[in-house]
Design brief:
- This protein has 108 residues and is α/β, with parallel strands linked by helices.
- Helices cover 27% and strands 21% of the residues.
- It is globular and about 35 Å long.
Amino acid sequence: MKLTILGSGTGWIRADRHAPAYLVSLEDFHMLLDIGPGTLYQLPKINCSLNDLSALFISHFHPDHVTDLIPFFFATRYQLGYTRRTPITLISHYSFSDFYEGLKRAFG
């Protein structure tokens, strides 16, 4: 098992630390723990694409833990280089569906 720290800072933008995001990998299984701002920018740096992700774990809904969900949903919805055919497993609080519906209302 491998843990890659993509970011361990807060929502405050800093050049030396990105917002919370971790990648847990075990063979071909890759789970993203949180998806704070800048996470999607960090993934290609470790040779990981959205197609490689098996699961997404959202710990809570503070902006520094979820902001890159918006470009993630956009990229996967409009197939911007995203060729995955099987769904990604999502692990989160039961209220995530309310949060997701709010994102859809705000961003389409």
